[in-house]
Amino acid sequence: MSTPRGMTLLETMIALAITSVIIAAAATLMLAGSRFIHNTEHSADSHDASRMAGEALMNAVRQAGAGAPGGLWVRLGGTPVRINTVFGRDGTTGTGTAGNVATADGSDDLWLVLPDRNYLGEPCVAQGAAASVVSPGTGALQVNCTQGLRAGGLHMASNMTTGALLSNVVLTPAGPTAPGQVSYDEASTSGYSNAPEKGGFQTGDLVYPVRLVHFFIGPHPRTGRPSLMRAEGRLLADTLSRPFSDVTTTPAQVVQENVEDFQVAFGFDTSGTENPAAYTWQHGLGSTFQTGLRTVRITVVATGRTPRRDSRSATVLSDDKPVTAENHVPTRTTADGLYRSLYTRRVELPNLAAASL
């Protein structure tokens, strides 16, 4: 019978070497898998951020300007002025957006006049539904009902071609024998109307609540990372001499975090042919009314939440730099490991196209 014996030192060393190779290979595979998952999630983060930011902007743009394809009358410095219901500055000029304070980040901003979603609903039923003017003239408006309007808010009086912005609305409900009344700050302005050439508001004009909405790039309140922000507006000239400015009593809301660039191009039907292929494009649009605006092109650039990882970081990082969008060429070109997704869509402005009817 043979005598039982253990492993020799050489056999033990060989077994340990083989085990080490197996463990190292398994660890390498696990690390590679972890990096792959991390980088995939990072890329998906940037794709999702750019897409959701772009979709949120497009949804708002599609609603803009309802009732005022021919422009919106507002009172500035005591004088009626006709403005665009869609406008925004070109950030490459270095005059900025966040809080209406000049910045040099290169991003654009966008102002929209949005109607209440119920403005075409059944009058006197839904909150936000339109009331009808029952007596022509200027000054306080006589309307068929006031239940759908909002005391103290911004409203538009519209003949569905041009509109007039009414601020600080005071409502007097209709009585058994008298119509409702809408009083507003601009009523004291001589001749103020949605159609000055007609000498005042007309019977059948609609009155409904509206919002002034401002989109821009600003710091996330928690992380400080650039994000797409939305602020409610008020009828007060900003530092860029535009008619609206952000409401200071309500913080701007984060629409989508990790959005570092936002660009808008405005398309005009200058030929009057209604042919999109013949539209002319410009970067930046002032508030003063311009005819022919038919479409906007929205572009956003978003990043993931954390830098990508790889065993050869230098190789990956060399491609992770700020990207050019529209006419904005970023001045910072240092790689930072953040993968970037660019989202671009052209959005028609159905409410402004009505101006050609």
Tell me about this structure.
It is a single chain. With 357 residues, the chain is of the alpha+beta class. It has a domain at 43-114 and 211-356. The chain is 18% helix and 30% strand. The chain contains three helices and 18 strands. The strands form two sheets. Strands 1, 2, 3, 4, 5, 6, 7, 8, 9, 10, 11, 12, 13 and 14 form a 14-stranded mixed β-sheet that branches. The chain has a four-stranded antiparallel β-sheet with strand order 16-15-17-18. It is elongated.
Profile the largest sheet.
14 strands, mixed
Give the beta-strand count.
18
Count of DSSP H/I helices: 3
Q: DSSP strand (E) fraction?
A: 25-35%
Q: How far is the first residue's CA from the last residue's CA?
A: 109 Å
Query: What is the 3D shape?
Result: elongated
Helix content: 10-25%
What would you call the structural class? alpha+beta
Overall average residue pLDDT: 86
Low-confidence stretches: 95-102
Radius of gyration, taken over Cα atoms and rounded to an integer in Å: 29 Å
**Helix and strand pattern:** HEEEEEEEEEEEEEEEEEHEH
Itemize the secondary structure elements and their pairings.
Layout: H1 9-63, E1 72-76, E2 79-83, E3 86-87, E4 110-115, E5 131-135, E6 141-143, E7 155-158, E8 163-166, E9 170-172, E10 180-183, E11 206-219, E12 226-235, E13 244-246, E14 253-257, E15 259-268, E16 280-283, E17 293-303, H2 313-317, E18 340-348, H3 350-353
Parallel strand pairs: 1-8
Antiparallel strand pairs: 1-2, 3-4, 4-11, 5-6, 5-11, 6-10, 7-8, 7-11, 9-10, 11-12, 12-13, 12-14, 15-16, 15-17, 17-18
